[in-house]
Amino acid sequence: MMLDRLEGNAELKSSVRLMLDSRRLTHSVLLVGEEGLGAGFAARCVAADYLYPQGGAPAEALVRGECCRAVAKAGKRDSGQIETGVVREAISVTGMGSGGKYLVGQVTAMRSEIFNTSLSAEGRAVLLYHVERMNEESANALLKVMEEPPEGVLFLLTADSLAGVLPTIRSRCISFAMAPVSPADCARYCTKQGVDAKAAALYSELFDGHIGTVLAAARDDARREQVEQALTLAKAAAAKDSYAAAVLLAGYEKEKDGAAALLADFRAVAAAGLRGSPRSPVQGDAARKALGAADAAMQRISAQVNPKIVLSVLAAKFRSF
User: Could you give a single Gene Ontology term from the biological process aspect (predicted)?
Assistant: First the structure.
């Protein structure tokens, strides 16, 4: 089974395997887990096992995400369409609006596709990523097809948190929580995927077994540099060096998205220190204070406060760490 490629999460794999083997898989499955835990990967594996129980090239392509896509343009309700992918039996929907919000045109295009096209012998799968980003309008459009789906259609939804999913959607799904693996298991898995062993060990500790986050960080030069900046910032926190922090953060004053991304990694490094990981430069009470300061700064940036002000205030707090 493709789902066997998912590290850990034994309960999820066992439950889904039983449902697939008995062909009693519910028509709507919700996989819940914060970014980097592999909910999207797990959803594609389940879809591949449902559509192609014998595996093969189509199953591999689906796991890679090479399926049809529901797209639309913001502000144009009738702009929804399906972009054809390698795997015709699966449709993916990822929010394309501001902040990754779903566009109702994407949902209506998907709905029209599965109702108006003939099913193959394998059935159809619909992958809906981050459904916590659905507004009421797009959720209502989805409910119309989830309540009475065509025969053979499986809906696989992912979300960062169960609380963020609208109750009307949540109540129509069977939910599974994604769990992180241990940092050691994460490092072993990522090393098998071609990540340098030293980098895999470091990132697995910093990101607490979030395999997707580790792979993303290890495979992208810009992201690796960002992690190094976060580690440098953590060293400044440990030394209560407000000046060093101010100099580093000054480079992000005009980059709201870049500042938010750096703060997220700084938060991860501080959290690792609070857990007692020796790979974090900041430990104990200083890590707790750094974590709180990072959270506050991230919230203020998301609230549209001027990044220069936010980062200046953050740097000043380093004296008290």
Answer: DNA-templated DNA replication
Confidence of residue 131 (pLDDT cuts 50, 70, 90): very high
Could you tell me if 129 and 102 are in contact, meaning their C-beta atoms sit under 8 angstroms apart?
A: no
pLDDT in tens, 204-222: 999 999 998 999 999 999 9
The alpha carbon of residue 232 and the mean position of all alpha carbons in its chain are separated, in whole angstroms, by 26
What pTM does this model have? 0.80
Among 177, 194, 211, identify where a domain stops. 177
Within 8 A by CB and 6+ apart from 25, the residues are 16, 19, 50, 154
Last-in-domain residue among 177, 206, 232: 177
Phi/psi of residue 76, nearest 5 degrees = -125, 95
How many domains are contained in the chain?
2
Kindly report the CATH number assigned to the domain that includes residue 59.
Answer: 3.40.50.300
